[in-house]
C-alpha cells in the first residue's frame, strides 16, 4: 500500500464559482474585495456568468476531479480521505478546515487547481489557507504539492487534445494551423516576481507550450508555429498586464495570412468560465468576425493520466516530508525546467499589496 504518512488528508483548494443567479454578485464581491477592479469590468464579468444562468462550471469540475481521485485512490490502495475548499465560494476553506479538524485531521496536503507559479495561483491560496486556519480556530499543519506544469500527466493529455483539435479543423485549415496557447493574463509585476527567482509564470508556460507543440508534431507529423497569448485581463487599464490578448492576436495572425488556429488553454486545468466564456464565446466571436477557422482544445479535466499524476505527486510529497527523497524523484518532470520547490522559498510570488501569513512556505 502506498505510504502517505505523515498526512491524514488531501485538501483540494480551488477558486470557487457561483451556482445560481443569486450567487453571482456576492461571489464577485468576494473575488474583487480590495483589488481595484473597475466597476465596468465587474458588470461585464457578471454578465458573462448570467449568460450561463449564473452558474460557473468550476464547482462541478472540482466535484468530478474529486470523484476521479477517490476512484483512483481506491484502485491503487491510497487510503487518504479527500476534502475540498474554495477561496471565493462554498464550500469555503474555513468551513472545510473545521470539518477536517472535527474528523481528527492533524496534517493535510493541499493540491491547488493551478499548475503554475504566480501570486494568484499559488501564494494567494497559501494565504487563503492561513486566513482560514485563523478564522476557523483550527491547528492543522498544511503542506502543498509542488507546481505540476511539467508533469508528464499534465502535458501528455494536452498534446492529445491539441492533436485532436487539429484533426477537427475543416480542410484546408487543418493542413497548417497555428497553435495558439492561452493562459490567464496577469499584471506584469506579478509575472516578474513569480516563482523562486522571478519570471516563473511565463517561463513555465513557454516550456509547456514547447512540450505540447513537440507532442503534437510527434502525433501528427506536422511542425506547426506556436505562440503564447493571454486572456481574461482585468484591473485598471493603466496597469500593464501580460500581452498580447488572444483576440488581438487572432486579428494579427489573420492579417499575416493564418488559415486556421487551434486555441489551447494550457493555463487552466478544467473548462471553467475563462475557457467557456473568454475563449468559446468571445475569442470564437472574434474568429468568426475575421473569418479565421478555430478549434479549441480540451483542458486536462479528469483525464486518468492527470489524476494519476496528482496521486504520484501526493505520494512523492509524503516521502519528501518523511525525509526519504527529494522533490521530483518519484513523479518526475518533462522538459528543460527542474522540479519546482515543495516548500515555497521566502518571497516566492510575493503579495503585491502587503505581506500576509501563508502556509507551506519558508516564511
Ligand atoms: C492566474 C489566474 C488564474 C489561474 C490560476 C487559478 O486557477 O487560480 C485565475 C483563475 C480564475 N479566475 C477566475 C475568476 C476571476 N478572476 C478575476 C480576477 C483576476 N484573476 C487573476 C488571475 C488568475 N485567475 C487576477 C490577477 C485577477 C485580478 C484581480 C486580482 O488581483 O485578484 C475575477 C474578477 C473579475 C475580472 O475578471 O476582472 C474573476 C471573476 C476563476 C473562476 C472561473 C469560473 O467561475 O469558472 C478562475 C479559475
Ligand atoms: Fe482570475
TrEMBL record:
Gene3D superfamilies, alphabetized: 3.40.50.1400
Reaction equations catalysed: Fe-coproporphyrin III + 2 H(+) = coproporphyrin III + Fe(2+)
Primary site of residence: cytoplasm
EC number: 4.99.1.9
Highest taxon listed in the record's lineage: Bacteria
Subcellular localization, as worded in the UniProt entry: Cytoplasm
Pathway(s) where this gene product acts: Porphyrin-containing compound metabolism; protoheme biosynthesis
List of residues binding Fe-coproporphyrin III: 56, 125
UniProtKB keywords: Cytoplasm, Heme biosynthesis, Iron, Lyase, Metal-binding, Porphyrin biosynthesis
Binding site for Fe(2+): 184, 274
Family membership: Belongs to the ferrochelatase family.
Role, per record: Involved in coproporphyrin-dependent heme b biosynthesis. Catalyzes the insertion of ferrous iron into coproporphyrin III to form Fe-coproporphyrin III.
Stored PANTHER family: FERROCHELATASE (PTHR11108), FERROCHELATASE, MITOCHONDRIAL (PTHR11108:SF1)
Protein name, per record: Coproporphyrin III ferrochelatase
Species of origin: Catenulispora subtropica
Gene field: cpfC
Amino acid at each position: 500500500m502506498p505510504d502517505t504518512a505523515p498526512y491524514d488528508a488531501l485538501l483540494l483548494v480551488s477558486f470557487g464559482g457561483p451556482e445560481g443567479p443569486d450567487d453571482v454578485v456576492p461571489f464577485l464581491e468576494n473575488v474583487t474585495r480590495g483589488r481595484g477592479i473597475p466597476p465596468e469590468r465587474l458588470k461585464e464579468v457578471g454578465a458573462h456568468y448570467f449568460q450561463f444562468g449564473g452558474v460557473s462550471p468550476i464547482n462541478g469540475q472540482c466535484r468530478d476531479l474529486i470523484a476521479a481521485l477517490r476512484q483512483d485512490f481506491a484502485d491503487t490502495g491510497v487510503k487518504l480521505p479527500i476534502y475540498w475548499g474554495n477561496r471565493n465560494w462554498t464550500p469555503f476553506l474555513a468551513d472545510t478546515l473545521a470539518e477536517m479538524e472535527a474528523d481528527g485531521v492533524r496534517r493535510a496536503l493541499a493540491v491547488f487547481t493551478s499548475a503554475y507559479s504566480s501570486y494568484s495561483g499559488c501564494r494567494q491560496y497559501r494565504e487563503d489557507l492561513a486566513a482560514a486556519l485563523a478564522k476557523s480556530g483550527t491547528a492543522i499543519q498544511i503542506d502543498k504539492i509542488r507546481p505540476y506544469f511539467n508533469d508528464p500527466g499534465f502535458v501528455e493529455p494536452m498534446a492529445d487534445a491539441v492533436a485532436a483539435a487539429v484533426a477537427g479543423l475543416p480542410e484546408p485549415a487543418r493542413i497548417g494551423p497555428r497553435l495558439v496557447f492561452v493562459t490567464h493574463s496577469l499584471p506584469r509585476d506579478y509575472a516578474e516576481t513569480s516563482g523562486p527567482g522571478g519570471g516563473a509564470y511565463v517561463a513555465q508556460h513557454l516550456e509547456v507550450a514547447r512540450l505540447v507543440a513537440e507532442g503534437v508534431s510527434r502525433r501528427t507529423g506536422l511542425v506547426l508555429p506556436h505562440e503564447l497569448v493571454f486572456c481574461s485581463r482585468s484591473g485598471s487599464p493603466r496597469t500593464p498586464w501580460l500581452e498580447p490578448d488572444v483576440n488581438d492576436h487572432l486579428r494579427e495572425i489573420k492579417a499575416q495570412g493564418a488559415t486556421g488556429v487551434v486555441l489551447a488553454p494550457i493555463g487552466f486545468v478544467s473548462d471553467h468560465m475563462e475557457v467557456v466564456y473568454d475563449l468559446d464565446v468571445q475569442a470564437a466571436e472574434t474568429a468568426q468576425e475575421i473569418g479565421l477557422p478555430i478549434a479549441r482544445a480540451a483542458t486536462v479535466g479528469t483525464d486518468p493520466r492527470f489524476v494519476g499524476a496528482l496521486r504520484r505527486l501526493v505520494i512523492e510529497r509524503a516521502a519528501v516530508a518523511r525525509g526519504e527523497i527529494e522533490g521530483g524523484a518519484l513523479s518526475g518532470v518533462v522538459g528543460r525546467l527542474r522540479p519546482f520547490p515543495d516548500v515555497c522559498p521566502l518571497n516566492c510570488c510575493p503579495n503585491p499589496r502587503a505581506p500576509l501569513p501563508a502556509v507551506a512556505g519558508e516564511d
